[in-house]
């Protein structure tokens, strides 16, 4: 994986953590909402377990975040 993609993924994870905490949702609560254990959420947030796109969308919806907006923000102000 290139550094750019790795950096982007880390920014996406940071955005997820920030959104979860901002919504006042614990890792355990998020785990319940998505049918997983708290340890799954912890591993995702620490980067120990990689998310696929369907899981990303499911987590975003569970914490009330638009996945498109999260990705757009993680990309920064880059013009395509």
List the helices and strands and how they pair.
Blueprint (H helix, E strand, L loop, with lengths): L2 H20 L4 H8 L3 H8 L7 H11 L3 H9 L5
Helix pairs in contact: 1-5, 2-3
Quick overview:
This protein has about 80 residues and is mostly helical.
Short descriptors:
80 residues; mainly alpha; 434 Repressor (Amino-terminal Domain); 5 helices
CATH architecture: Orthogonal Bundle
Number of strands: 0
Secondary-structure element sequence?
HHHHH
Distance between the termini: 20 Å
What is the quaternary state of this protein? single chain
Fraction of helical residues: over 70%
Q: Radius of gyration, Cα only, in angstroms?
A: 12 Å
- Our estimate of the beta-strand percent is under 5%
Low-confidence stretches: none
Please, how many helices?
5
| CATH domain class | Mainly Alpha
The CATH topology corresponds to 434 Repressor (Amino-terminal Domain)
- Overall, the morphology is globular
Instruction: Describe the main β-sheet briefly.
Output: none
Number of domains: 1
Structural class from helices and strands? mainly alpha
